[in-house]
Design goal:
It comes from Streptomyces antnestii. This protein is an alpha/beta fold. Helices cover about 30% and strands about 20% of the residues.
Length: about 375
């Protein structure tokens, strides 16, 4: 089913995590959930939009760092109303989140990649009578941030990006980059390419783009773990953003909400009529070209990374909130359902536009809401 872009783009959904909570956002390493301004940029929830429904207790969660800023905003709004709930979310990356979920250590996980068949099988051991499902909640462009002194506008394509991150293009004045930027004064500065040190759905989606759009230059199979040789690494989206900010010649990839404090982002030459900027609207155009491939209550999506549609930014991720369709932890289930209901609501989704997250098409969000209502 192709997702149609409806006139209610304002009704498109923004993201969510599978649990409830008061705020106790616990970051790990350099990947602090408060990076980039966080909840302070989002408006407060509207009066009466949050129904606590006797939710209480502490919820443990782990996963995607790309959605950490979204979670912080949701938790701040939710816990202002539901004071008996606390969320401890560690943004340690999608790989860590899925592992924690399938081992029964957390009430929910956030992942920028859908569950694999073996992960679904593992989830059945912790979901009594059910299994883990993917609920698309947060959309957003994966920005390619760079730090090249004297260069305020930079255009790259999939082929140059693949060669940069594979160590084939080594300096910023390389002729392939110069061809795409004829008016730029490119320095001979050495390129410092940074990738994630932890397993990450952001890495998975970024390399899926390289593989789909530049197969002749990106020979790796892809996945949450970085496979190319060379380069430098840092943990989490915020760790990569910090390296770009402080390192001359640096380039890296991270969710757009981390492109703060003057970090410049690459415009992509996709073959469309003009280079495409990393914006939430342009990411939404790309997500609108996705297909639902999940079965049953699972709503995993297949993105078109090689799109050439005008204004569609193809390096886009969708973060899934992973919960059990049946057999959720009984002690935290009321809080889980209450929190999910809020973040999937119109108010919960609309509050995050200021944080740089792209809407999910409204017809998918309707299915997400129906699924949340059916959780047990």
């Amino acid at each position: 089913m192709k997702l149609q872009r409806k006139n209610g783009l304002r009704a498109l959904s923004l993201g969510a995590i599978a649990v409830s909570g008061a705020l106790a956002l616990t970051a790990c390493g350099s990947d602090n959930a408060s990076t980039g301004g966080g909840a302070s940029s989002a408006p407060a929830a509207k009066a009466g939009s949050i129904k606590c429904d006797n939710a209480k207790g502490q919820l443990l969660a782990n996963g995607s760092s790309a959605q950490a800023n979204a979670i912080q905003a949701w938790v701040k709004a939710y816990t202002a109303e539901c004071k008996g709930v606390q969320i401890n979310y560690k943004p340690e990356g999608s790989g860590a989140g899925v592992t924690a979920f399938t081992q029964g250590q957390v009430a929910f996980a956030g992942s920028d990649s859908a569950l694999k068949p073996e992960e679904v099988a593992a989830s059945k051991k912790v979901c009594s009578g059910g299994q883990g499902i993917d609920l698309p909640m947060v959309g957003g462009p994966i920005a390619v941030g760079y730090n090249v002194p004297g260069v305020d506008n930079l255009v790259l394509d999939a082929h140059t990006l693949a060669q940069i991150f594979d160590g084939k293009i080594k300096t910023w004045d390389d002729k392939a980059i110069a061809k795409l930027n004829p008016k730029a004064k490119l320095p001979s500065t050495k390129i410092q390419a940074f990738h994630r040190s932890d397993e990450s759905g952001t890495t998975d989606n970024f390399t899926k783009y390289l593989k789909a759009a530049a197969p002749s230059d990106w020979k790796y199979s892809g996945g949450k773990a970085w496979q190319a040789k060379g380069g430098q690494s840092a943990q989490g989206s915020s760790g990569l953003a910090q390296q770009v900010k402080q390192t001359a010649g640096a380039i890296s990839y991270f969710e757009l909400s981390y492109a703060k404090d003057g970090i410049k982002t690459v415009d992509l030459d996709t073959g469309a009529s003009a280079p495409v900027k990393a914006t939430t609207d342009n990411a939404t155009k790309a997500i609108s070209d996705a297909k639902v491939v999940g079965t049953g209550k699972d709503l995993s999506l297949q993105l078109n990374y090689a799109t050439k549609a005008d204004g569609a930014y193809p390096i886009t991720l969708v973060t899934y909130e992973i919960v059990c369709d049946k057999g959720n932890k009984a002690d935290t289930f009321p809080a889980t359902k209450s929190f999910l209901t809020y973040i999937a609501s119109q108010d919960g989704q609309d509050s995050l536009a200021a944080l740089g997250y792209a809407p999910i098409p409204s017809e998918i969000n309707t299915k997400v809401r129906d699924t949340i209502a059916s959780l047990s």
